[in-house]
Design brief:
Elements lengths: L6 H26 L6 H8 L3 H7 L3 H25 L4 H18 L1 H13 L16 H13 L9 H21 L5 H14 L15
Helix pairs in contact: 1-2, 1-4, 2-3, 4-5, 4-6, 5-7, 5-9, 6-8, 7-8, 8-9
Organism: Paraburkholderia haematera
Protein name: HTH tetR-type domain-containing protein
InterPro entries: DNA-bd_HTH_TetR-type_CS (IPR023772), Homeodomain-like_sf (IPR009057), HTH-type_TetR-like_transc_reg (IPR050109), HTH_TetR (IPR001647), Tet_transcr_reg_TetR-rel_C_sf (IPR036271)
């Protein structure tokens, strides 16, 4: 094996190709609209064979998801200093989800096809180097682990398990926002954070003792 053909170099080359294809697709989506752009158009614009594009991305939704995940990774790096300054889990996760709400509101037309792809794909969450970036799960795991370490969150379940449950709530809030007119996504995310942190049990009201006559 030559120096130019090491696994690390191949992985980096593949990552660059994925990013190039995704950026090309996004330019087309912005210019012509997501629904009308075809995989064939993306291949032509990126100057690759159609088979090459399909080898990397089976569907247009997969291309979109790759780009969205890359944007999330960039945004998470920018938000990290602000997140780390938050005093507790609820404040930190709210910073992340407030930013997500703003992004989703600015790209609303792309959220439905993204969700279709995510809910129909059951890929393993563990990735090799050079694999496409992930969505919010990695950030959720990080913040939940920190919350467990400080004693804010239960630790009888793994952080990855709790992150998956929170992720399902996140998707549920997104779907509710998409189909229900008038909802504010930031408020929907705040509701799932409260539910996740406090649980769904009805708060116990103190019993009022009757005075003896």
């Amino acid at each position: 094996m030559t120096d130019s053909d090491t696994p690390d170099r191949r992985a980096k080359k593949r990552a660059r190709t994925l990013d190039l294809l995704a950026e090309t697709a996004i330019r087309l989506f912005k210019s012509h609209g997501y629904e009308v752009v075809t995989m064939e158009q993306i291949a032509v614009e990126a100057d690759v064979a159609k088979g090459t594009l399909y080898n990397h991305f089976p569907t247009k939704e997969a291309v979109l998801a790759h780009w969205i995940h890359a944007q999330l990774a960039i945004d998470r790096v920018h938000l990290q200093p602000l997140i780390e300054r938050q005093p507790d889990f609820e404040a930190a996760i709210s910073v992340m989800l407030d930013a997500s709400a703003a992004w989703c509101e600015a790209h609303r037309a792309w959220i439905a096809p993204y969700l279709r792809f995510r809910l129909l794909s059951f890929e393993a969450t563990e990735r090799e180097d050079g694999a496409p970036p992930s969505d919010h799960v990695d950030g959720f795991v990080m913040l939940i682990s920190r919350g467990q370490h400080t004693g804010e969150l239960r630790d009888d379940l793994a952080a990855s398990h709790l992150a998956t449950l929170l992720h399902h709530l996140y998707f549920g809030a997104l779907m509710r926002w998409l189909i229900t007119p008038g909802l504010v996504l930031r408020e929907e995310f705040a509701a799932i954070v409260k539910l996740f942190v406090e649980g769904a049990a009805r708060p116990r009201t103190p019993t009022v003792k009757r005075r003896k006559s």
